[in-house]
Amino acid sequence: MSKKVVLAYSGGLDTSVAVRWMAQEWQVEVVAVAVDVGQGMDAAAVKSRALAAGAVEAVVVDAKEEYARDFVLPALWANARYEGKYPLVSALSRPVIVRHLVQEARRHGAAGIAHGCTGKGNDQVRFEVAIRALAPELEVLAPVRVWPFTREDSLAYAQEHGIVVSASKTSLYSIDENLWGKAIECGVLEDPWQEPPADVFTLTQQTANDSLEIVIGFDAGVPSTLDGRSLGLTELIAQVGSAVGSRGFGRLDMVENRRVGIKSREVYECPSALALLMAHSDLEDLTLERDLAHEKARLEPRWAELVYDGMWFSPLKEALDAFMVSTQRHVTGEVRLKVSPGGLCKVVGRRSPVALYDHDLATYDASDTFRHQDAEGFVRLWGLGIKTWAARQGGIGSRLSQPGSGQ
Ligand code: ARG
To answer: What atom in ligand 1 is closest to the CA of residue 174?
Structure first.
C-alpha cells in the first residue's frame, strides 16, 4: 500500500494540480483537507473538485468559530498589526489550518503533510514551523516548491488531466481570504508605483453616500454587541465589516518585509479588522492603567512579528499571550465609530463602567476633589534632578545659545 499524505487543499489551481502530481510523481495517496476560515467556501464543490483531481478522500472542516475565538481574538487583544499596518489576515489562519491538518493526518495514519506554497512567501514558513511544533514526527512536503511548472504549465497540466478550476480561481490575482480580511497579490500589483485597479476590491466598495455611526460594545476584550445587539463573534465581525466597508473603509496598500528577505507590495482589504482594532485600542486608552498600557504597547509589535514569522506555537508567543489575556479583564465598555464616504473611519466617543477617566479629575472647571497644592511639591521634586544638573552647567543662560535651544 502506498503511503498517505494529507494536503492543505484550497480548491484553487495549484493545490488541485498538486493532488494529481503528487499521486503520479511520488506514488502517494492524497487526502485533501480544506479548512473553512471564512473565505466563502462551497464545501460540496471543493470536495468534488479534490476527488476529481485524484484525492482518495476529501475532508472539509468548518473552523470559522474556532478561528475567530482562538486566533482572531488574541490578535485583537494584542492590537496586532505587522509593521504597524497589516492585521495579519493570512498569518493568523495558517496555525488553525495546521491544527486541523495534523488532526486529519493522525486520523488517517498519514506519513506527512503537504502544502501548496511557493518558496517565496511567508505561508510556507507558517505551515512548516507550525507542523513541526505540533507533529514533529510528520514529514513536510512542498510540491509547488519542487515542480518545474510555470503558471501556464499548471493550467496546461490541469487541462490535460481534466482538472476543473473555476474562472475565479484562475484570476489575475493571488487572493487569500478569511473572516479577518483579504490579501491580494500578483498581476499589476507587483509594480508598487501602480495604483491598484478598482476591480481588485470586493469588501470595500462604497455603496452608500451618507455617514454612518456604529457602536461596538466590548466585554473583557471580547467585542460582543453592535448597536446594542448581542452578536456571536463571527457574526459581529461580518456585520462590522459590511457596515464600514460600505463607505469604502478598510483598504491597505503597503510594501512589507517578508520573513524570507523579500520586500513585496501588498494590497489588503480588512474593513472589520481595522475598525475593531481601532475601537478596541481606543477603549484600552480609556481603561488601562498607564504603565500597563505603555508596556503593552511595547509588546504588541513583538507579538505581531512573531505571528507573521510563523511562530504562533512558540514559548515566547505563549508567554506574551498570557500577558495580553491578563490585560483584557479591564477592557469593557463601548466605542462609537463614525464612518464617512471615501473610506474615513474614526472614533468619536467611548465610555466604560470601569473607565479610569475621571471627569472631576480631568476637568479644568473649578473642582474641589483635586488638591492643587499637592502639585507644587510634586513638580518641585520631579524637576529637582534637572535643576541640580542645570546649576552645574553654569545655569540656563549658557544653554540658551546652543544649537537646538531655539535661540
Ligand atoms: N503578505 C501577506 C502575508 O504574508 C499575505 C499572504 C497572502 N497569501 C497568499 N497565499 N496569497 O501574510
So the answer is: 11
